[in-house]
């Protein structure tokens, strides 16, 4: 147990934070992918605070608070990445296209996703007024997806096990997709929020599918794209739309339709309510 921890620790700490910071800053493509998100997350925080000033009902404020957490988590995460705090260098295992080479791992991104994506799903679940059991199951599957994705990125002992974790992560993802496309969509229609939920659902499903694709094609997977900077920009571009644009559309609708959000048409005892 202790040997395994030390092995992971040594794998991630072969380069100091200062060295990692310098390497990131010297790579214009990589550093820009991080600084752009820091700036956009900061602007999103200010904008969302302003947009939420007129929201008063419990359910609407719950949605607003969950959504506001997304850029708050993101700005913290991207500061960790750009500083070198949540960046490591791992040696790829035999069988990988870059076997034996040290590759930068932005493992801090997985921490971001493990904290921010549950907030996105919480906001969507509140919007659709889904029951507590479904909300818990989907958020738990989402966290499982992020944690096993992190494992897939950090395993250096076996190329096969990296992909095994990737498959498990995708299996968790299927649970999230199934709920968004079926059960939650039906609940939103009953709650009177079907139109905006449909828009946000399509946006979420399409954009979230991009993350495992980038992993598979990038340096962590098949390394068809060997540039860490390009891979980072792929993730960062998805974050911009899946987080900030998504949150803006949701909050704008909630602010303009607070009465609909407050007076859910569902009467099930298990539905999520900020007043429970």
Automatic annotation (TrEMBL):
Subcellular location per UniProt equals: Membrane
Residues that span the membrane, as ranges:
28-50, 62-90, 110-128, 135-157, 163-181, 202-225, 237-255
What keywords are assigned to this protein?
Answer: Chromophore, Membrane, Photoreceptor protein, Receptor, Retinal protein, Sensory transduction, Transmembrane, Transmembrane helix
InterPro entries linked to this entry: Arc/bac/fun_rhodopsins, Rhodopsin_retinal_BS
Bilayer topology reads: Multi-pass membrane protein
Single GO BP term: phototransduction
Family matches, as Pfam families? Bac_rhodopsin
What this protein is called in its record is: Capsular biosynthesis protein CpsH
PANTHER family hit by this protein: BACTERIORHODOPSIN _OPSIN, NOPA (EUROFUNG) (PTHR28286:SF2), PTHR28286
